[in-house]
């Protein structure tokens, strides 16, 4: 149950209050690097889990939960500091909260959840780039953020379709 990838995922949960503390102290760039460290643990835990065949149902649920929880913390920090609009924050929050709640409900109903895949990881990377552009106040940051929000909703639709197919196959094989 608890293996190296799952411990790395737990580290991402621990980095959430670290990020918020650093951001709240006004050290925006340092906060971004805390977020980047969380992203690197995400890459590392996925790599180790696949390479050593340590993918678990717990990890499949906790990994996206850690990603989404961190992203919600980032969204809230950016909106409360007026770096993004509440409209962008609501769109991002609805998507991420929907993924968290949906995954948890399906897990506790005994349904199989879809593990993070390349498209989901790409969406996360795109969000990191958007956050980088926003925190460092680079040109076109806000337009790029909206592009990423649209991509993230498309990714969610694909996850939902994969979930339906995965559980339909599972129900048919029983």
Task: Walk me through the structure.
This protein has 174 residues and is mostly helical. The chain has a single domain, classed as Four Helix Bundle (Hemerythrin (Met), subunit A) (Up-down Bundle), CATH 1.20.120. The protein has 6 helices and no strands. Helix 5 runs antiparallel to helix 6. The model has no long low-confidence stretch (mean pLDDT 89).
Question: What features would you highlight for this structure?
Answer:
mainly alpha; Phosphatidylglycerophosphate synthase; 6 helices; Four Helix Bundle (Hemerythrin (Met), subunit A); 174 residues
Cα radius of gyration in angstroms = 16 Å
Structural class, please?
Answer: mainly alpha
What is the CATH topology descriptor? Four Helix Bundle (Hemerythrin (Met), subunit A)
Please count the helical segments. Answer: 6
Give the helices and strands as they follow along the chain: HHHHHH
Average pLDDT, to the nearest integer? 89
Give the DSSP E fraction (strand runs of 2 or more residues). under 5%
The CATH architecture would be Up-down Bundle
* CATH-level-4 superfamily name: CDP-alcohol phosphotransferase transmembrane (TM) domain
**In percent, how helical is the residue content?**
over 70%
Sheet bearing the most strands, described? none
Give the class-level CATH name: Mainly Alpha
Spans with pLDDT under 50 lasting ≥5 residues? none
Number of strands: 0
């Amino acid at each position: 149950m608890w293996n190296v990838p799952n411990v790395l995922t737990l580290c991402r949960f621990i980095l959430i209050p670290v990020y918020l503390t650093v951001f709240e102290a006004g050290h925006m760039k340092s906060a971004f690097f805390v977020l980047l460290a969380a992203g690197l643990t995400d890459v590392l835990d996925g790599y180790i889990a696949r390479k050593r065949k340590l993918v678990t149902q717990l990890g499949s649920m906790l990994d996206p939960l850690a990603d989404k929880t961190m992203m919600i913390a980032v969204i809230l920090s950016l909106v409360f500091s007026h770096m993004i609009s509440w409209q962008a924050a609501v769109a991002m929050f609805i998507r991420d909260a929907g993924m968290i709640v949906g995954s948890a409900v399906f897990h506790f109903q005994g349904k199989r959840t879809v593990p993070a895949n390349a498209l989901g990881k790409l969406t996360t990377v795109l969000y990191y780039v958007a956050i980088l552009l926003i925190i460092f106040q680079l040109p076109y940051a806000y337009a790029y953020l909206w592009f990423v929000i649209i991509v993230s909703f498309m990714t969610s639709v694909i996850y939902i379709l994969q979930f339906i197919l995965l559980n339909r196959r599972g129900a048919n094989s029983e």
